[in-house]
Amino acid sequence: MSALEKFFCPGSVAVVGASRTPGKAGHTIVRNILEFGFRGDIYPVNPGCEEILGLRSYASIGEVPGPVDLAIGVLPRRQTLDLITECAHAGVRSLIIPAAGFSDVGAEGRELEREVMEAARAAGIRVMGPNSIGTVCTGCGIATPIVTLDRMRPGGVSLFGQTGMLASGFARWIQTSERFGINKIACLGNKADLDENDMLEYLATDDTTRVIGFYTEGVSNGRRFAEALRAAAGAKPVLVLKSGRTAGGRKAIASHTGALAGSDEVYSGLIEQCGARRVADFEELFDCAKALEWQPLPAGDGVGIVSITGLGCVLAADSASRYGLRFPRPAPRTVEAMRGALPDWVPASNPADIWAAIEARGPKEAYGLVASALADDPDVHSLVAIFTLIPESSLDVMELFGPLAESHPEKPLAAVLMSGDALMYAEWKRTLEGNGIPAYHSPERALRALGAMRALNRKGMGAADAAPATQPARSITPPLGSRDVR
Q1: Residue 463, CB-side half-sphere exposure with 13 Å CA sphere
Q2: Is the Cβ–Cβ distance between 459 and 473 less than 8 Å?
Q3: Domain boundaries, the chain
Q4: Where are the beta strands (DSSP E) in 245-377?
């Protein structure tokens, strides 16, 4: 069993430093574990309390009546060595240390961290942290962050990195805005013990994880990192956000976690060689993750664009070559099918500006005929529909994407909601992404995600003629067909 298994799927959890005061970290952690529906034993530990959130509290971890698979030590940093000793005597072998003030703050903190880790290794205790807010696992109902989380939508994307934001602000953003399902989250903190190499090795063979995304500020064992990254990227899509591209960024990293950032060029080359995809920021990470979670990998670089506006076509054209994509000239049969929707004076081209067709036939027929024609073209491997959210373009968006998903299960689909009514935007995005169609605010973001998918497939991440590499989203509407994109 991997050393990480009990950090995500423990049979029992002890929260040392639990509190009955709302707002305190020790209260929030217990609350989160209950909220996520954890089915194992939960042991609050606080000598000053008899009960916390309906659970009996214990004076010490040594008084807990059963075995403890995972302990979270919500204590000041100076009490961490004593906590290690208590955990060792109680037989605890997995520990999360949320406290900061170790190698992240200077020489004195580094020495304290060294002493803590020396004691932990001697006791056979694996540590996540220090300076870690812990883990989330939707499948096992575990959530140890020190900030309030509501139960998250389960899915196939697992995230980890050197920031507590993954299990706090970003977790809430994903839940309320991006809507892709989370499998696991790990906040590694200072990485005094468990690091990205351990996570990559663990997630590479985790059957419930379909997409891996992680943030790192630097690695300490380059050879092991390369081996772990190559193995993970050979099994499933891996997205890497590496900070420290500039001297200023590397200086900030040193003050954040004490990490050594290393050469940015070396990291870029290594990530590419290992078959993973480097992303520039968290926006790109999430944009790519949801596309990989919901859609199949494209068989080629040909993209079809159907747009309400010429601006959308121009912006898409600017982005395509930047991300290794092209707009194939429509085949004669495709042109003939497109002519059924377009006025005589409008060219049947790709990208397709269909404003005149919308005026003549209405948005449902214009989008439907042109999108279907492009999707049928064998040189088009993915399709993007661009909308401006105004009354003239209003339609039941899933009446467009549903049939396309059913007739072309091998081709990834995406929507661009470029401008217009903000309320309409929120409604359309919720509908699209609730049905497994990624929606983006600009052509640039949609094509960037498709470019990442194409690059990953070119590196061997899945067969072009196979079923989707990842599972479609859970349906909130009746199934649309064999692909069941929802």
Answers
A1: 3
A2: no
A3: 5-291, 297-458
A4: 277-279, 303-307, 352-353
Smallest CA-to-CA distance from 14 within 102, 115, 86, 118 is with 86
Tokens 């040193």 appear where? Answer: 254
Strands 382-389 and 413-420: parallel
Task: Give the residue carrying structure tokens 């989250």.
Answer: 185
* Residue 137: both structure tokens together: 């696992």
Query: Domain 297-458 falls in which CATH fold?
Result: Rossmann fold (3.40.50)
Cα–Cα distances in Å, from 484 out to 406, 409, 461, 480?
A: 7, 9, 22, 5
Q: Supply φ then ψ for residue 211, to 5 degrees.
A: -135, 135
**Taken in order 79, 81, 85, 91, is the CA torsion positive or negative?**
positive
Q: Which residues pair with 382 in a beta bridge?
A: 303
Q: pTM (2 decimals)? A: 0.90
- Cα–Cα dist 137/126, whole Å: 18
Q: Matching CATH topology for 5-291 and 297-458?
A: yes
List CB contacts of 103: < 8 A, sequence separation 6 or more: 109, 110, 113, 130, 190, 192, 257, 258
CA dihedral 359, 363, 369, 370 (to 10 degrees): 80
Q: What gap in Å lies between CA 373 and CA 54, rounded to an integer?
A: 61
Q: How far is CA 83 from CA 58, 59, 79, 189, in A?
A: 15, 13, 6, 18
Burial (0-12, 13-18, 19+ Cβ within 10 Å), 249: middle
CATH tag for 5-291 (out of 3.20.20.70, 3.20.20.150, 2.60.40.420, 3.40.50.261): 3.40.50.261
Q: What is the pLDDT along the chain (486 residues), one digit of tens a residue?
A: 688 999 999 999 999 999 999 999 999 999 999 999 999 999 999 999 999 999 999 999 999 999 999 999 999 999 999 999 999 999 999 999 999 999 989 899 999 999 999 999 999 999 999 999 999 999 999 999 999 999 999 999 999 999 999 999 999 999 999 999 999 999 999 999 999 999 999 999 999 999 999 999 988 899 999 999 999 999 999 999 998 765 554 455 444 444 445 678 888 999 999 999 999 999 999 999 999 999 999 999 999 999 999 999 999 999 999 999 999 999 999 999 999 999 999 999 999 999 999 999 999 999 999 999 999 999 999 999 999 999 877 899 999 999 999 999 999 999 999 989 999 999 999 999 999 999 999 999 999 999 999 999 976 554 333 334 344 433 333 222 223 322
Are 389 and 421 contacting, i.e. CB atoms less than 8 angstroms apart?
yes
Q: Which two tokens stand for residue 472?
A: 């479609």
- What backbone phi and psi angles, to 5 degrees, belong to 15? -105, 100
